[in-house]
Amino acid sequence: MTIPAAVQRGSTEEMAKPPRRVTAVATLVALIAAVVMALGLAAWFRGEANQLGGSAAASNEALVDAGTTTAVSGQVREAVQRVFSYDYARLDDNERAASKVITGQYVQSFHQQFARVRALAPPQQAVVVATVPALAVKELDGDRAIVVVFLDQQAHQGGQAKPLLASGRLSVTAQLVDGSWKIADAEPF
């Protein structure tokens, strides 16, 4: 039986090193792939940023302008409390005070509602005190704001020891007029 001769092999160093040309090509391909991935990610991030910048939340000043949002909140709170409070013995004063914090189409609506108060409050000796336990500026766009208002009212009637309590929610549209935020509309919801 014959034993085949050993196959001649080169040194192990020559076998372990890939040729220089293969290494250079692999490095170049890896660099090109990394650049393509970086450009793709950059384009994607830019698209996401543009989408966020154009969203309704980004254009809503109530989320970014804390000073104006605070001013709107305070002035609308005070205005709502004035408009929805009255004392049967001081109706003229109540109507004048409320007229200073309303504007636009709401003026006519308020006076129509207050005409009913004038008719019903004196015979009942009604005193209504409105408070705003919570509110939130939902939208602020320049000189216009939408405010969600939670309203509590206590109505005291002559001869009644226990007040009547009522709670509600309003969507108030406020308008900036001569530096003050006034009620331009108020709708229950």
Strand and helix map with partners:
Layout: H1 12-16, H2 20-53, H3 56-59, H4 66-83, E1 86-87, H5 91-99, H6 106-124, E2 127-141, E3 144-156, E4 164-177, E5 180-188
Antiparallel strand pairs: 1-2, 2-3, 3-4, 4-5
Task: Write the H/E string, N to C.
Answer: HHHHEHHEEEE
Taking all residues together, what is the mean pLDDT? 88
In the predicted model, the low-confidence regions spanning at least 5 consecutive residues are none
Number of helices: 6
User: What form results from the Cα inertia axes?
Assistant: rod-shaped
Query: How much strand?
Result: 25-35%
Number of DSSP strand runs: 5
Radius of gyration: 37 Å
- The strands making up the biggest β-sheet line up spatially as 1-2-3-4-5
Instruction: Give me the secondary-structure category.
Output: alpha+beta
Largest sheet: 5 strands, antiparallel
Amount of helix: 40-55%
Straight-line distance between termini: 104 Å
Overall description:
The protein is an alpha+beta fold and 189 residues long. Helices cover 47% and strands 28% of the residues. It has six helices and five strands. It has helices spanning 12-16, 20-53, 56-59, 66-83, 91-99, 106-124; strands at residues 86-87, 127-141, 144-156, 164-177, 180-188. The protein has a five-stranded antiparallel sheet. A hairpin with a 7-residue loop joins β3 and β4 (164-177). The chain is rod-shaped and about 125 Å long. The model has no long low-confidence stretch (mean pLDDT 88).
